[in-house]
Design brief:
By secondary structure, the protein is of the alpha+beta class. It has two domains: 54 residues; 185 residues, 3-Layer(aba) Sandwich (Glutaredoxin), CATH 3.40.30. The chain has eight helices and six strands, in the order H-E-E-E-H-E-H-H-H-H-H-E-E-H. Helix 3 runs antiparallel to helix 4. The chain is globular, with a radius of gyration of 36 Å.
């Protein structure tokens, strides 16, 4: 009997200890739940603050306005047009080709042909485009014979014919004097002119092609212009052009 009593006492004490342990664990869990609840509430408050806080303006990725020169580069349109678009371009650049095929025709028909905008083409042959510089040299040489825009169109329309051999073979069909054209290209006569374009482009913050500057035409070769980066759709150019033209009307 004595042994049985001892066993019962042990079981009772064990039960009491177990209950105490369970109660302690429950108390600890309640504390953890309370802490977690407080953390969740704090996070919710932070989210509310973020939602209601005014958004910070985005850091500009490019200059809003810059003084740009047309240099001595080819001009399409009325030299006295109200606005000027300067493009820095690369004949081997597929995005430049897209602009010339899909966007420039609309700008020409809506603005250039109506005397509202003049368009200036400046060279920016990228170093990793091996045929871009020779093509630019050829274009400038064709310009010497009054055929700049003819060869400009040829180069953008024939991306597989940008090597000198193909360009020279097209001279007759473009109405060029072959001998003069060949000598000009082989002598790299306009290399320094192209290098000037490259240096100016870098000075203006240009790092890729195509890059555009749009502004009001001023006396002389320079103007204040805004930067448009990349082969943007026509509507982007239209918005900029119409805004500047409306400012002229109000003035």
């Amino acid at each position: 009997m004595k042994n049985i009593a001892i066993v019962i006492l042990i079981l009772i004490l064990a039960g009491v200890g177990l209950n105490a342990w369970i109660l302690a664990e429950l108390s600890s869990m309640q504390g953890d739940v309370k802490k977690l609840s407080q953390q969740v509430s704090g996070a919710i408050e932070e989210i509310k603050k973020i939602k209601t806080a005014p958004s910070a303006p985005a850091a500009p990725s490019e200059p809003s306005e810059v003084r740009v020169s047309i240099d001595d580069d080819p001009i399409k349109g009325d030299p006295k047009a109200s606005l000027t678009i300067i493009e820095f371009s690369d004949y081997q650049c597929p995005f430049c080709r897209r602009f010339h095929q899909e966007v420039l025709p609309s700008i020409e028909s809506e603005y250039i042909s109506k005397g509202k905008v003049r368009y200036v083409f400046r060279d920016y042959p990228l170093t990793f485009h091996q045929q871009a510089l020779p093509a630019a040299l050829a274009a400038n040489c064709a310009g010497e014979q009054g055929k700049y825009w003819e060869i400009n169109n040829f180069l953008f329309e024939n991306p597989t014919k940008l090597d000198i051999a193909n360009i020279l073979s097209s001279a007759k069909s473009l109405g060029l004097n072959y001998g003069e054209f060949e000598k000009c290209v082989n002598d790299k006569k306009y290399e320094s002119e192209i290098q000037k374009d490259i240096e100016d482009a870098k000075k203006y913050g240009v790092s890729g092609t195509p890059s555009f500057f749009i502004g009001k035409t001023e006396e002389g070769k320079e103007m204040t212009a805004s930067y448009v980066r990349g082969a943007q759709p026509f509507q982007v150019f239209k918005a900029r052009i119409d805004k500047l033209l409306s400012e002229d009307d109000k003035g």
